[in-house]
Each structure stands twice: as C-alpha cells, then as structure tokens.
Amino acid sequence: MAAQAEWMFRALRSGRRHLSAGRQWEEKWLTLPPVTASATVEVKGKRKGSGNELSSTPTTALKWIVRCCPNLPISLLHKLFRLRQVRLLSPPHMDTQHQTLKRVAAKYTLNAGDRILLPQSVQQKPAPTHKPHSPLTPQQINFIRTLVIYKDPAILVLNKPPGMPVQGGINIKHSLDVVAAACLNYEYSEPPRLVHRLDRDCSGILVMGRTQTSTTVLHSIFREKTSRALDNIGEEKRILQRRYWALVLGCPRRSKGLVTASLGKVVVDNGKSDRITVVDNSASLSSQHAITEYRVLASSSQGYTWLELSPLTGRKHQLRVHCAEVLGTPIVGDYKYGWQAHRKWGGFDLSYVEDSCEELLKEETLPFGLNLNNGSISENHPRLHLHCKQIVLPNISQALQNVQSFSNCDLSLGEGLELVADLPPYMQRSWDVTNG
C-alpha cells in the first residue's frame, strides 16, 4: 500500500512537472501550423520552352512564416533569422517537452509536417500601418542633390554623408534609397536603385543604377568582384576597384599587405544582437572568404595611422573586422569592434558612446538631423573614420550604347570611370591634425 501511494505521488509530481513545462513552452514559443504536403512545393510559372509545364520551388522557412503571419513586418522576420531565434520542430517527434529544437535559416527547405516556432514576443509587435512618407522639404531636396558627384544616363553617384542609413528599416525615418527615389529621378520615370551598400556611419562613394538594365549590369559587376576575388589577387587592373581611407589606432607591422581571413556571424547578448568575427575554420558552411589589400598612407607622432583599404570581396563589416582583429589596428570611432582598444588608448570619454554615435547628432546643423562637423580625434567622442574615397568601374553608359541588352555589351570598351569623394569635415579635420 505504501509502495502504491509512493508511485501515485511520483506520477502526480511528474504530471505537474510536465504541465509546468508545457506552460513554459507556450509562454516562450508561438507554434505555427504544420506545413501541408501541398505547400511544400510552390508553382512559380511556366518553364521556358516546355509547353504547359510548370516550374516549382520548395517552400522555405521564410515563405511559410509570411504565409501564416502576413501582418508581421518582413524586416522583423529577417531580424529573427539573423539573431537565430527561429526554431524547427520536425515530425514524428512532436513532443515539445523533450525534443531539442533546431535553429533554421530563412532559406531552409521545409517538409510536410514541419512546424516553425517563433518567440512569443512577436505577437506583441503592432501590425505595420504603412503610413506614407512625409514629403521632403525644399531644404532636404537641395541637400540631397548636393551629394551627387557624378551622373550619366546609366548611373548616379553620391558622396554619402555619415550617419544616414542607406536602406530603411525599423525606427529609420529617412534612408538614402527612399529620398533618392523622391528627388533624384531627374528626367527619368523610374527611380535610381541601390547596387551596393555602406554602413550607416561610413561615408563616401555610393553608386546607384538609373535604369533597370544598368542596375542589372552593376549588380553583376559587384557580384563577380566577390566571387572571383581569389583570381584577381595581384592584378593591377580589375573591372571594379574600391579604395577606402581609414584612420586607425596604432600601426600595422608591415606598411602594406594582403589580409585573407574568413568571416562569420556570431550571436551575442543572449540573442539580442550579432557581430562579425574572424572564423578560423574556413571550411565552415557559415563562413565567407574575405580579402582586403591595405597600405599605409601616413603615420602620426600621436600613434594614429591612415590606411588605404581595398576590399576584393564585399562582406558585411569586412574592413572593420580585418582592421581590428587581423591587423590589430581598429578604426577610430568603431566602438563595436574596437571598444577595448579605445578604452586603453585614453583621451576619449566613452561613458556615453553608443554603436550608432547618436550622441554626436544632438546639434542639428543639416537636414535629416545630420552633423558632419563633430567627431574628429580632437574631441571626446570621435566618430567612425571610414570613408569610401575612390571607385574605378567600367563606363556602363558607353558600353550600353548601340546594344539591345546588357548580355552582349562589352564592359572593357573605353576608359573606366574614376570617381573620387571628398572626406567629411570631421575626417578632414583629423587628417589636418595628424599631418600638421
């Protein structure tokens, strides 16, 4: 009798424990409906040259979430995948109390019966209201047009100001792609389009395509630059050349060289943010090869060094990570990858410095809340000193003349375009200080 009572007590305690685990599960995760067999393959359209046959593509994790949760902003979904907060529960083991969930990427192919789990916090996100953007003021339009340093029938080139994001997102009111579409069409009916990106706090040359054809050509040029980077090492003339100027803390051991260090993304702060880092195992599926050429432009008695950086690949935060983790000389004002170096350097008040340098934008002296004067090394809060100084690329407008499509245009015809952008005022002041 005692043994039976003890068994019943253990069963009751176990049941309460499973019930508690189930409640914790429901509090933490939002479980989407299982993927149906008919949804695992989506019809995309007719296959070329095959009569009435239809081509199809598998349903990915991102597509299924969009179908089940159409009110969730796409920017939020990309952030959840980027921070690895999306989970997969596959059949037949649907016991959520015992199974270890699998993290999935946005392009992960789903099978019938799979279930996607999202953090419960997404239910607290308000549905997007899609409020129209307020029209730009004459002062804002004039300011954006002063950023144009080159224009021809195919491309538009801007000298991007630091502090202005290239693309829109959560809590971003004005981005360059939006304002350019509003006031840089000129005589064209279609807006200019982005073909590459710069970090929000980075400044310098930003190239945009003025037509669909020129945008496609530019996309192919930037993609080939990255995919064929290993083949282009040592070549004096490349189809695309980019040169950045950066002021760094310290000085590299060699005056010039080549950095070949693969990069990967890691999640920090319990999934609240992420950062890029050098990956030792280059064979890892999550790593991306990244190559940067560098040379010393000038050194100062204060210990600062001006570098010219030429990225042969186009990876996120490539130059910042290569400078900080490989060369051991983080870029001035890069508190994400060079916080400890700035703290040891001294002379900087870091008590209120944030990654986005919002403290530097308190005094609104230009449209869009920009301030390009504050942030030199003479001040307590230096800004990011990274500037895309020069780009050399093919004369696309010339190459596209007298051709019917970009597939048969010869990008080697004629001389290339060499575009140069002036330093922002605060970087020019740092240049004057270190070279005075």
TrEMBL record:
Subcellular localization(s) per the UniProt record: Mitochondrion
Pfam families in the record: PseudoU_synth_2
Keyword ATP-binding in record: no
Lineage: Eukaryota, Viridiplantae, Streptophyta, Embryophyta, Tracheophyta
CDD domains noted in UniProt: PseudoU_synth_RluA_like
Record keywords, A-Z: Isomerase, Mitochondrion
A GO molecular-function descriptor: pseudouridine synthase activity
Entry superkingdom: Eukaryota
Swiss-Prot/TrEMBL GO biological process terms: enzyme-directed rRNA pseudouridine synthesis
PANTHER family per UniProt: 21S RRNA PSEUDOURIDINE(2819) SYNTHASE, MITOCHONDRIAL RNA PSEUDOURIDINE SYNTHASE
Family: Belongs to the pseudouridine synthase RluA family.
Domain Pseudouridine synthase RsuA/RluA-like per the UniProt entry, residue ranges: 155-324
Protein name per its UniProtKB record: Ribosomal large subunit pseudouridine synthase C
GO cellular component labels: mitochondrion
Coiled coil: none
